[in-house]
Specification:
With 294 residues, the protein is an all-alpha fold. It contains 14 helices and no strands.
Length: 294
Amino acid sequence: MTSIVAPPSRGSRTSGARSASGSRRRVSPLVYIASVFIALVTLSPVIYAVLGGFRSNGQLAESPAGLPSPWIFTNYISVITSSSFWQYGLNSMIIAAVTTALVVVAGVMAAYPLARYRFKGRQALFNVFVLGLLFPLTVAIIPLFLMVRDLGLTNSYWGVALPQAAFALPMTIVILRPFLMALPNELEEAAMLDGASRIGFFWRILIPLSGPGMVTVGVLAFVASWNGYLLPLLFLNDPALKTLPLGVADFSTQYSADTAGVLAFTSLAIIPALVFFLTMQKRIVSGLQGAVKG
């Protein structure tokens, strides 16, 4: 004897959906407390540096953790009106832009055959890039310095941008490869039937569709290049080519007694990268989610 099970009614499905939605919305207060605590711990150095720039050296010595009283703006004004600060920022912007362009273009061109082509040794070649994640910059710094010097690229933007792009490629390919593999094969087959070559499919269809992944790797490369210190320190001896991290170090050495001024200079130096990262964080998350799903 067979029994017929009635399908769930619309009302029961609706109540079930509401129950599931309600359970998703209920978040324990401990989660909020833990989130606020972690956020405060993470942002406390930045907040201290920003507020410290509005204080005098006397206030910092009297009460290191206190609030500005009165608020002093001369520290920030003296930094903003300094021509060297803008020169450092321009150098950092040029190097970061060149590095980002190299990473995105070379990364997507390397990830494309690893994701869409079937050839012998494909996985082994991909593993070589994965192993690049385990290769720290400090280990290769001496041969890298000799190579850049022999190429005559010291004291140039390319001497910093090229090594930075090379060390960012492993992470770029690891993110982009699953992203490109997730694109359906039917799309490529339809393009082939319409007469498109593999190169045409790459430029006309794959590049526009892989925009979120390219934005993700581009933002990561830009922020890493902006905060880079070791490579500019080794390859940029000309004061006119120094970047903002080097400028912060020089300013800290030159005005070591002016702690408030150093805090103001440091705060202004981190603002561009911080604003850029916060502006693009949604695209970074969506790009990483696409890579994980792929």
